[in-house]
Amino acid sequence: MAHPESFYHHIYDWQDMPRDSLLSTLLKSCHRIMNTCRIADVCALIDHLILQLRLDGYYRLEVSSHVYIEHFQGGRQVSYDGLRPQKGSENRTIKVVELERAIIFKMHFIQLYLFKHQENAELLENNKDACLLWLMHIESVCLQASLKDLPGQSLTAEQRCHADSMNFHIDLEINASRLTHQASQMYQTFNERVMSLLTPAEYIQPAKYQQLLINAVTLHQEQLSELIKKQYGLFSSSKRVLEAITHVS
N or C: which end of the chain has fewer CB within 10 A? Predict the structure, then answer.
């Protein structure tokens, strides 16, 4: 599915997605990410997945001016004294950079750099869409955390009065609450449509199972894309309003 250029633009192809253990692992991790709202917990889940899959590389996560960077090699976290990784994408576009020996995923809040080896190159190539879906869940939690942090910015008494006259905090709270409710509904649908297939209660004929999984993941990706579009819209507009308020002397 193609998204508007003003959004995280990527064309997903679930029809050709291999039904292997990596897809299952990533989807289960998506389920855990949706069930948390703390960035520290998100980082722990990223660490766990990278260590579980024994991937080499690093990630850089930046939320509300807090930067989290972790490097991995040989199935363990390692220290790194080289250049500090820079922010991934400054806008809402998805960037996937294919190098001979690495693949880089760049989004607004997270950048993931993975080295390719003979053992994992084909696996990474075949599961790029699933990796992107996993990263989109991280972006959604980062947006949720950023929206939560916005009202906490320090304002002068005059600026607070100006914000109150515009109903800034009330409107932000109401709109953010609606998005939280939408995320909760998406999580419930994911449980019913996707997780039930990862641990089916009874045998499903392979061809039917594959189509059910394609349909379920496609629906979830559409719901997640719509949620993030609204989250980013609220985040961007609220930041602009807050910047205007802080210019009040």
Answer: C
